[in-house]
Amino acid sequence: MKKLLVFLFVISLFSLVIGNVIYVADPGATLQSCNGSCSSAAGNGYSCFLSGSAIKYDNNGNPLAVSLNLSISCRVILGLTSPSCSASDTFSGMGSVSGAVSCLVNTGPFQGPCYTNKNCSCN
Asked: Which domain of life does the protein's organism represent (predicted)?
């Protein structure tokens, strides 16, 4: 009988400890925006710009650590040449984070079509 009481006491203690453990549900990060552009920079070439934002909260609305990765590359076609530029960075925060990267394609006074490749990701 004594062993049974000790066993029940240990089981009840164990259930109290397990019952007080806090579990955090991590639903993952959400990319809210990812906007890139390549525009003429007043006779100096082309300015490439990428901005983005991400959020990450648990199921109770509490902020979680989030990181945002931004990367852009731009290429301008000028006949036989195609000057380019690229930029990337990672931004970190709690709950929500935003950031921007930019670079300049130096074409001087010459104009041509500008092509961009952008990438935004978060975790």
From this structure: Bacteria
